[in-house]
Amino acid sequence: MKTSYQVKLLAAAVIGFSTFSASYAEEVDSISSMFSDGKASLSFRYRYENVDQDGIDKSANASTLKTRLNFTSASYNNVTFFTEMDNVTVVGSERYRTPSNGKTEYPIVADPDGTDVNQAYLKYKTDGFDTAVGRQRILLAGQRFVGGVGWRQNEQTYDALSFNLPSKTGISVSYNYLWKINRIFGPENSAAQAKSWDSNSHAFLAKYTLSKSHKLSAYAYILDFEDAVANSTSTYGIGYKGNFGIVTLAADYASQSDNADNPTDYTADYVSAELGVKLKPATVSIGYELLGSDDGTAAFKTPLATLHKFQGWADKFLKTPDTGIEDTYVKVAGKVGKVSLVAVYHDFSSDEGGLDYGSELDFAATYPLHKNITAQLKYAAYNADSFATDTDKVWLTMNFKF
Prior knowledge:
- This protein is mainly β.
- The chain has one helix and 18 strands.
- It starts with a helix and ends with a strand.
- The model has no long low-confidence stretch (mean pLDDT 92).
């Protein structure tokens, strides 16, 4: 015969266990719903790239298809999970050189085939703060110093811890700790290019909105690479963007020096300025960009940039020459009907030594065939003087998103 105390204790235990079970079941259901209520998307990008380069017998003809599948979970306690898989497949014959296939009779097209995890991260987000940890896309300040190289079929992503404070008082702050750089050269290492760099790097960007038309920025990129010590650098800079009605102005200044185990002792400057005038139906821009040199021994480097956006689409200056580079350019951009058009002319010279590197003409036309399908034709012609060789490139790209 149980005493009244024992009965009460047993009843309390049963109630406690039931409450715990219900709470546990509720937690399991909530976590499970993160995945069941999540969203998946699928996209394809087909590209044909032709490269005709002086000094190489054959032209490259790269026909590739990128398939991307990603999944975004529903939010649970402000936490979401995101993952993204990429596959790059060669369509037809592999008539181009990659860093790993050894086909040196062709010019290089940095789109090797392969499958890898492009992104996989956990994110915590509230109205005033968000942080993410894992493999992620990081695009900062126009991607001149830290970007994703989204132009290539295999994107550059970062194994990183990121913190972002969005603007509520006119000030926004982003800090990123980077411990691995997952580069564009595919999932396999090669003698020419490593698939990734181990890193102990910091990227900091702060933006201050003076008004709707005027913005300031300050940044610091402290890069330390175990696998690429010559790219270990410290860069500090400031930027300005202004809108004066039909006239826009953007300007940057930065100073860079060697960092960590970089064997070269140097200091170099970065300067950029662009003046744009909005004239219907086009915008005309005149720009100047300097990646300076320290007496010809070393020059300003941007190893994590989306380099294809800068200094010409022919990609002749992916590595800054030790004598530095000055890029003076004129850009015209506009629309004719549904077709977006861009044309750019570049004149390249050295910062040290008075060298005339060459010039380049770039042109692109983009047309939306459907709300989920776009087509782009793109052309670059580099005319060499004292740097590299004459090179023509043509791209036809089709994007499909579902």
